[in-house]
Write a structure and sequence with these properties.
The chain is mainly alpha-helical and 208 residues long. The protein folds into two domains: 70 residues, no CATH class; 132 residues, no CATH class. It has six helices and four strands. The strands form two sheets. It has a two-stranded antiparallel sheet with strand order 1-2. The protein starts with a strand and ends in a 7-residue tail after the last helix.
Length: 208
């Protein structure tokens, strides 16, 4: 496999007015009634942006993101293992750099992270999210990351193996491993499967 994905196409954008307003008033509370200086900088910004837009139309808006993917025959022999080392570092980086969190189903997280409908409605009236909103998404992402970490371990099941038992039967050339924690192995697999389920369910929410 060989994958090469270029950056997203950029556009020329003038930020003179927005930078001035953010520095003067903060990133959220811009006043409705701006003073003379604010209006002058806004007019200058509009003039420069109109020139930029010509160049954007001629060049930047016609560019597309370059994506080249080559798949070899062996990449699909065990496709789940092929994709795991690619997905894992992307999930880790996304968790470190994300700037928001989507709504998640309460049934997908532990009880201590859930909010009642009454609580959600109370916070929603003011356009706010409940105190556990971001913690729920962090928990979902941690479960995805853990699942792909395990997929990248070729022999995670050995955590639940017992000692190697030599065969006493001369007709058998090899011995065998005994399960010492079959229940633990099943719970491990169930958690992995749930992490992959969450990955599929929230796939379209994997954005920064």
């Amino acid at each position: 496999m060989k994958v090469k994905i270029g950056g997203y196409p950029n556009r020329l954008i003038c930020n003179i007015h927005s930078n001035h307003m953010n520095k003067k008033y903060g990133y959220i509370d811009w006043p409705d009634n701006q003073d003379y200086e604010d209006h002058v900088l806004e007019a200058i910004d509009d003039g420069i942006q109109s020139v930029y837009n010509v160049f954007n139309w001629i060049w930047f808006d016609r560019r597309t993101q370059k994506v080249k993917v080559r798949i070899d025959r062996w990449d699909t022999w065990s496709m789940d293992h092929t994709l795991a080392p690619i997905i894992l570092p992307m999930l880790v980086q996304l968790k470190e750099t994300k700037h928001g969190a989507p709504m998640v189903d309460m049934k997908d997280v532990p009880k201590e992270l859930r909010a009642t409908k009454k609580q959600l409605d109370a916070y929603g009236k003011n356009g706010d999210v409940d105190p556990k909103h971001f913690e729920r998404w962090d928990w979902i992402m941690d479960e995805m990351i853990w699942a792909f970490e395990q997929k990248n371990r070729d022999h995670w099941e050995e955590d639940y193996y017992g000692p190697y038992i030599e065969s006493e039967d001369k007709r058998e050339l090899f011995g065998r491993f005994e399960w010492t924690d079959d229940e633990g192995r099943k719970k491990h697999q169930e958690r992995m499967s749930n992490g992959f389920r969450l990955f599929g369910k929230y796939y379209e929410n994997l954005w920064d």
